[in-house]
Amino acid sequence: MSSSSSTVEPEATKPLNSRGRVIFASLIGTTIEFYDFYIYATASVLVFPALFFPNSDPATALLQSFAVFGVAFVARPLGSIVFGHFGDRIGRKGTLVASLLTMGIATFLIGVLPTAQVPGWSFWAPAILVLLRFMQGLALGGEWSGAALLATENAPKGKRAVYGTFPQLGAPIGFIIANLLFVLLNAVLPTEAFLAWGWRVPFIASAILVIVGLYVRLKLIESFSFQQVIEKGKVVKLPLAAVFTKQWRPLALGTFIMFATYVLFYLMTSFTLTFGTSPATVEQARTAAEAAGREYSDAAAAAFVPGLGISRGDFLWMLIIGVVFFGIFTVVSGPLAEKFGRRKMLLAVTAGIAVFGLTWVPLFGAGTSGAMALLIIGFILMGLTFGPMAAILPELFPANVRYTGSAVAYNLSSVIGAAPASFVAIALWQAADGSTFLVGLYLSAAAVLTFIALWLSRETRDRDYENNIA
């Protein structure tokens, strides 16, 4: 890897996009993408087991729903390759528009998809759901890196980590909007109406957000860093090959630097929602099944694993409160990463995540108040570890393979970190007969791997970002 030694006039290095346009375009896009992603995550816990896998017992249906949820994570590395290729070949702007359209179309179609309960759709409904979920993953695989580059490649000197928090804020904001919609629908609709059509509203409504996001992104001007790549004739024909042959070390480090962040987030959202809303007693489980119009068999009672028994609406509010802390500390993380450096700050936060994993049993053992404390602490750590990722991952790679390199690292990590997290956590919870000790230990182990990757990496804060071209 080499860097250009040419001198660039200070005036020429100024971002061509205004600060407001950069902030809004990077934020609105990731908000939409994560909103679309999260409404599926929430639905996969609350309604999809009954609607798309009605012939399975509750535990099996939930695992089947999470398996479809995980399909998107398999698709994400492919999305990073496809969108990364075009992002490094033709530019960031057009690629970001394409990823947003892909996500929007897939999400809307999920909202109008017949369920397996409709005659003739028992096979096709789950199959098409898998396909649309794959499209969602494909889109998100290309979205994050493009949004991160949009923010950081337009950032003033010494502000990359601060600007990098703007696309990261899309995660908590998208989560809050998605879950507020579910809370509202859950509050105003009876269970029968929510299962019949209410769950579709958040999916269909995403079309409005996509139109706004497309309008903003079409107004963008290509980043200065990519213009430098073009002007110097350094556009790479096969960015993926260049990343794996010449940038394999930062690729491996970036994948594991992101690992604990993924595990933490999906344990804090999907798993805690499952555990928190699962019945605390067999009697509660039987009542819930009858309310949903399902028979609760003796086999299901024998396989019963206790949760906290908190109502769906109450726990969604608890999650929303926790995610507010996620958003606040995402913003806080930017200045901290500039002051102390990305590596030093993330080493400290990752050590905190490892310790946090050991507190799950006593916190959950305290009931609702303990669960709320666990959510707040976990989401504070989430904000602190997620915020700097939009700066540190792109900084690992030169400009002409930056889109592909950061996207592949981010999404390879999703395969090993995010995709199995909910499935593994549920299996560990059930294996421990309702205890969350093994789940917390799983989180701590993930943090140890990330700590090692950070320890082996070098500080990226002061690297020449604009003129670093391989």
From TrEMBL:
<dbReference type="GO" id="GO:0005886">
    <property type="term" value="C:plasma membrane"/>
</dbReference>
<dbReference type="InterPro" id="IPR036259">
    <property type="entry name" value="MFS_trans_sf"/>
</dbReference>
<keyword id="KW-1003">Cell membrane</keyword>
<keyword id="KW-0769">Symport</keyword>
<comment type="similarity">
    <text>Belongs to the major facilitator superfamily. Metabolite:H+ Symporter (MHS) family (TC 2.A.1.6) family.</text>
</comment>
<comment type="function">
    <text>May be a proton symporter involved in the uptake of osmolytes such as proline and glycine betaine.</text>
</comment>
<feature type="transmembrane region" description="Helical">
    <location>
        <begin position="409"/>
        <end position="431"/>
    </location>
</feature>
<dbReference type="InterPro" id="IPR005828">
    <property type="entry name" value="MFS_sugar_transport-like"/>
</dbReference>
<feature type="transmembrane region" description="Helical">
    <location>
        <begin position="437"/>
        <end position="456"/>
    </location>
</feature>
<feature type="transmembrane region" description="Helical">
    <location>
        <begin position="345"/>
        <end position="365"/>
    </location>
</feature>
<feature type="transmembrane region" description="Helical">
    <location>
        <begin position="197"/>
        <end position="216"/>
    </location>
</feature>
<keyword id="KW-0813">Transport</keyword>
<protein>
    <recommendedName>
        <fullName>Putative proline/betaine transporter</fullName>
    </recommendedName>
</protein>
<feature type="domain" description="Major facilitator superfamily (MFS) profile">
    <location>
        <begin position="22"/>
        <end position="462"/>
    </location>
</feature>
<keyword id="KW-1133">Transmembrane helix</keyword>
<keyword id="KW-0812">Transmembrane</keyword>
<feature type="transmembrane region" description="Helical">
    <location>
        <begin position="95"/>
        <end position="115"/>
    </location>
</feature>
<feature type="transmembrane region" description="Helical">
    <location>
        <begin position="161"/>
        <end position="185"/>
    </location>
</feature>
<feature type="transmembrane region" description="Helical">
    <location>
        <begin position="121"/>
        <end position="140"/>
    </location>
</feature>
<feature type="transmembrane region" description="Helical">
    <location>
        <begin position="21"/>
        <end position="41"/>
    </location>
</feature>
<feature type="transmembrane region" description="Helical">
    <location>
        <begin position="251"/>
        <end position="269"/>
    </location>
</feature>
<dbReference type="GO" id="GO:0015293">
    <property type="term" value="F:symporter activity"/>
</dbReference>
<feature type="transmembrane region" description="Helical">
    <location>
        <begin position="315"/>
        <end position="333"/>
    </location>
</feature>
<dbReference type="InterPro" id="IPR020846">
    <property type="entry name" value="MFS_dom"/>
</dbReference>
<feature type="transmembrane region" description="Helical">
    <location>
        <begin position="371"/>
        <end position="397"/>
    </location>
</feature>
<dbReference type="InterPro" id="IPR005829">
    <property type="entry name" value="Sugar_transporter_CS"/>
</dbReference>
<dbReference type="Pfam" id="PF00083">
    <property type="entry name" value="Sugar_tr"/>
</dbReference>
<keyword id="KW-0472">Membrane</keyword>
<feature type="transmembrane region" description="Helical">
    <location>
        <begin position="61"/>
        <end position="83"/>
    </location>
</feature>
